[in-house]
């Protein structure tokens, strides 16, 4: 088994070198632009990609948080399981992300749609909602990109047919984006005000 494990590691190393770095850098710029405008980043995926979506959302919020910088607003569409199961039960599993997204998404927001095949019906449905709303869709997908590639404004297509390697690469992309964005925020000029201070309490009258 060691030979098989080491073969997999070698293939991952080669895959990383073949990744579209310029496209990933453009994703970073899109995300930072969304953050700077006060927009929201939505993230969705199925199965292992649902775990990637949740992990990415956590890191994008917490891992890039710096004092004096406007934080990222991020909503993982994978994490509200009562809502996911309610929409699946009352409509269909294909609508579990789209129905959550529709009342929340606004022009200029970003949807990160994760699908190794690029053909997950519920991820495609969410991408269509984002497109109608004037939001930007970023696809993290596999070699061909599937149908999702045609719905996305920008697609990071991992050049592999092996689903495990595609999912590994998606997590590497997520981590590299968070590291790059944190460094960018660290060296950029601080925002004038991120949050306004609450109004001071009125002085208590002397009743004596």
UniProtKB/TrEMBL annotation:
GO molecular function: carbohydrate derivative binding; isomerase activity
Sorted UniProt keywords: Isomerase
Residue intervals of the SIS domain: 27-187
One biological process term in Gene Ontology: carbohydrate derivative metabolic process
Pfam families xrefs: SIS_2
InterPro entries hit by this protein: GmhA/DiaA, SIS_dom, SIS_dom_sf, SIS_GmhA/DiaA_subfam
Protein name, per record: Sugar isomerase (SIS)
Source organism (scientific name): Sphaerobacter thermophilus (strain ATCC 49802 / DSM 20745 / KCCM 41009 / NCIMB 13125 / S 6022)
Taxonomic path: Bacteria, Pseudomonadati, Thermomicrobiota, Thermomicrobia, Sphaerobacterales
């Amino acid at each position: 088994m060691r030979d098989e494990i080491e073969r997999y590691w070698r293939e991952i190393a080669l895959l990383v070198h073949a990744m579209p770095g310029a496209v990933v850098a453009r994703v970073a710029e899109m995300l930072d632009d969304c953050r700077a405008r006060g927009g929201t980043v939505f993230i969705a995926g199925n199965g292992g990609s649902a775990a990637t979506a949740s992990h990415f959302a956590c890191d994008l919020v917490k891992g890039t948080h710096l004092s004096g910088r406007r934080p990222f607003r991020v909503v993982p569409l994978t994490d509200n399981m009562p809502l996911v199961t309610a929409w699946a039960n009352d409509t269909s599993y294909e609508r579990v992300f789209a129905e959550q997204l529709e009342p929340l998404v606004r022009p200029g927001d970003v949807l990160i749609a994760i699908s190794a095949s690029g053909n997950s019906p519920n991820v495609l449905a969410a991408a269509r909602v984002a497109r109608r709303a004037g939001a930007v869709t970023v696809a993290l997908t596999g070699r061909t990109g599937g149908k999702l590639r045609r719905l996305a404004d920008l697609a990071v297509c991992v050049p592999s047919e092996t689903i495990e390697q595609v999912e590994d690469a998606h997590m590497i992309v997520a981590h590299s984006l968070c590291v790059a964005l944190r460094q960018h925020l660290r060296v950029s000029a601080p925002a004038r005000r991120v949050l306004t201070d609450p109004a001071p309490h009125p002085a208590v009258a002397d009743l004596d």
